Sequence to fold (328 residues):
Amino acid sequence: MDSSENSLKILEFFSRNYGQLIAPVGLFKACAVVSAKLPWPRLSILNVAPTRQFKSVTSNLIGKMFPASYSIHVGSDFTIHSLYKETKGDVDKKCLFINDGTLLLTSKSKRGKDRLINALAEIISDGKYHYGDFKTSFDIKGHCTVAMNMTLEAFSRYENSLLSNTFLERFLTVFHNMPRKEQHNYYDMREERNENASKVFPRKLRVKPLKVENVGEYKKAFIEFGKDYSVLSIRSFLGCVDQVEALAVSHAVLNGRSRLCEDDMEVVRLAREYLSNPLSPNRSRIVVLYQQGRSQRDICLLLNRDYNKYRPYVSKVLKAARLRGVVN
Fold:
């Protein structure tokens, strides 16, 4: 990324202090902050990982690298009423940092969760949410993005029942799971490597919401990456194409460019390595084999699985892929 000075600083900082696996996650969140300043499509990030793997750290440090006006740290246990009170109904051109989506979803009744998730989905996609009951009514307006963290356990619990289609489709979901060796290495070196972000970024990262002029030149590339993202994440193709474009454009603007270049395609390639759920490593392979015309029996055989035991899982994956338009 020779033409991307800010990206290199972010990657080097997180790599030095938290490891090479964590560094791109910080960069993706930085792109989400920038994306809030840009026209549609915009980029929101859902960061999924086991507990104690620097999800909150990356959010907090990225927030500090930009001026305070670029983002709002809304915490982990808020309601649509408290969001309105804190923001006065204006979230325009802000990135909302949600520290712990697990707590956000488990601390509320089903009605409260549904209302909050639907509200966030509407704000991200439409730039407006209207709340009204017999006592009060209000609007939350503004085109914003969201960077939310969630544990892998909670994601597995909520993916299909609550987040699917209304909320999750608006996010680029990135997974990471630090190898044990990398965790040990961090523990051994953390006193030496715990570097203050303010020393690396004494001047806050400010971006001009430039119009990126050559997006049309990359449409074919976006389509191909969108197909790839769709299979890897089992998400709708059109949503994935939007996420690819938003990631590339926001990365260019993060680095002060008004034209896309190979660096921006490189960050798109980098993100694809974070799309597969580590608890379901065969999902994308099942979809690819099905697209090739393989039967469920053939898929089980090629994955070296017992047909009678594994067939229900294959059927479940293909059903989810059909519901989300990944396969016909």
